[in-house]
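[STRUCTURE TOKENS]
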Amino acid sequence: MILEDFKFYKPCKLLQPYVRYYWVFKSNQPQNTLTFPIGCPQIIFHKQMPLYIPELNTTQDRVAISGQVNFPSHLYANGNVEMIVVVFHPHTMSMFLNLPTSLFYNQEVSGYSLENKKLNELAIRISDCEDNSVCINYIEKWLLSQIANNLSETSYNIKRMDAAIRQIYSFPQTTVTELSSITCLCKKQFERLFHSLVGMNPKEYARIARFQKALAQMQHQTGKEISQAQIAYTSGYSDQSHFIREFKKLSGYTPMSLLKVSAPYSDLFTNPV
């Protein structure tokens, strides 16, 4: 998928604490794309051909929930793709589905399997609508209706996790004990809440954040001489060998070999709208 083929939409002000952005992708060409863990769960609406993910041996449904993942994966389609994606902040999707995000870990789950009547109705409206700007409005109305029903304890916990997520973004090497202190929770409570809302444990999420920070640096150093040692240090890796080893696990490539096949792009640390 080429970035220029995407159209991005900014959420309304009330949803910005929960939704990073929406994107729409349309193409009548065959797709074969390698994707990396981005650190943000998503709800995906397909208006035409869904995508096949060989690493999971699954084809996304017309509405799919994509949870946190810790591995690179391919996306395949024969053509005629048209999809709308809601990209949440790492810790906010559960507020809209009334389910722990951890249930979707390393999975692509059919939205129809959740037995969520309003979500199913939304998927039908989107499928029948030709104007994607109108589809985004439908999605926002549904999201806002879910917020109205979940303003109490869930909202408070999301604010707690927001502080931890911001700390991880800035310093992925922050210990779990330090993160729990930031949220005014004991370590076990923090780990349990983080796992439920974010969808993976704090140490694993820090791996994704470090990887995405490294991608962001490579993205902005294109055409320049890239110092792997400097990227490793700035991204929070213990040393250069740690950086290369972890980068390969999460992308399938070493940092230098990735540069030969594609332009690095950090989904987590790039704001397209």
About this structure: The radius of gyration is 19 Å.
